[in-house]
Write a structure and sequence with these properties.
The complex is a heterodimer. By secondary structure, chain A is mainly β. Chain A has no helices and 12 strands. By secondary structure, chain B is mainly beta. The chains are: A mainly beta, B mainly beta.
Amino acid sequence: AQTVTQSQPEMSVQEAETVTLSCTYDTSESDYYLFWYKQPPSRQMILVIRQEAYKQQNATENRFSVNFQKAAKSFSLKISDSQLGDAAMYFCAYRTSNAGGTSYGKLTFGQGTILTVHP
Amino acid sequence: KAGVTQTPRYLIKTRGQQVTLSCSPISGHRSVSWYQQTPGQGLQFLFEYFSETQRNKGNFPGRFSGRQFSNSRSEMNVSTLELGDSALYLCASSLENRKGNEQFFGPGTRLTVL
């Protein structure tokens, strides 16, 4: 079974600075997807960024980028120019790309990292 | 395009009762997944429905069940409620095709069992 680990329960950053959130995962599969989701205090989960394991290029979405190290099974999220609105719980999630059976619709989440942004 | 909606947003029940939660996916999405979120266990997958069929189920007791209708709306039911069922229940919808398998989440239903 796949597992996702976020070793930083809490992180803080000053506004306009850069912060990196860590995520490691364990899988025996070679093809899969990785996601970062953001859950602000309002509780609506929002997709931040998506990475396909077969793509070597790291995904980027505006101020958000990832450092995907497949061999090390590491998937960190970098937030540049942090804003007050970035404050939230961030979840790393894994999803197999194999069709069928136990793969349908299932995201495996890490425990989350609470990010605080200081003005 | 409207996002995923869940009703009700808050619910208070007592032990032994049953509850039904509803989820309306994004228009065009045929897959709906349900998750339970608690401080202790985090986010755990309950089940997934696609075209009215349950295709996958997480490790939860049979008291947790669900269904999906022809318009892709989904309901989940919890019978004989226990205190430990208090949680935020999230549903997520997805296209589940080659164009995308990202899941888009609703705001959740906060269930409190007394």
